[in-house]
Amino acid sequence: MTERGGARVPRGEARDRIVAAATELFGRQGYEATTTRQIVEAAQVTKGAMYHWFSSKEELLTSIYRELLAEQTARLEAIAGGAGPADVRLHDAVTDLFAHMDEHAEPLTVWARSMHLVAGEHAAAVRAERRRYQHLFQDLVEEGQKTGVFRGDVLATVVTNTFLSGIVQIYRWFRPEGPLTRRELGEQMVALFLDGVRTVPTAEPA
């Protein structure tokens, strides 16, 4: 238990408060401009509670993203390991990815804007977990190429990195007040991506 203003806060709840406060502050005023003191005050917990869960502001930022990335990876693993043709599973995977991004838009946007500030062991941990997601995605693309549902003239590594790199950059140009919702944007990007990787039927002779 931790105390704040005379009230006792369960440790698990304190962690949730810290994450929620940090996400809101990072999103509103930026990671660099946000201080640990501001996070503690917004979360209404003690500084000790903050450092019980996170050794630094950098660890807090990476922890928020790594938890979401772990969710994305588990969901992709379940879809990729399911039944059905590779193109159907890849469609389900990228559609689910956009759904997850829509559900957690604020913390994922915070990470995309701030990830260049993370270095050392925290950056290495994130890279390792992202490689796992990329390998699962690439394996699914390669499976589709082997079964003939995806074009084989473009390497699976190129397909994978082009798509996932484009996803990371969405925060730079997407505007919630624009003509599309995140879900609608996802539907269009999924259609564009899958049309680009599917095998083009050979034209019948005249």
Automatic annotation (TrEMBL):
**InterPro entries reported for this sequence:** Homeodomain-like_sf, HTH-type_TetR-like_transc_reg, HTH_TetR, KstR2_TetR_C, Tet_transcr_reg_TetR-rel_C_sf
Kindly state which keywords UniProt assigns to this record, in alphabetical order.
DNA-binding, Repressor, Transcription, Transcription regulation
Source domain of life is Bacteria
Which Pfam families does the protein's record reference? TetR_C_24, TetR_N
Protein name, entry field: TetR/AcrR family transcriptional regulator
- Residues in HTH tetR-type domain copies: 12-72
Q: Which residues bind DNA?
A: 35-54
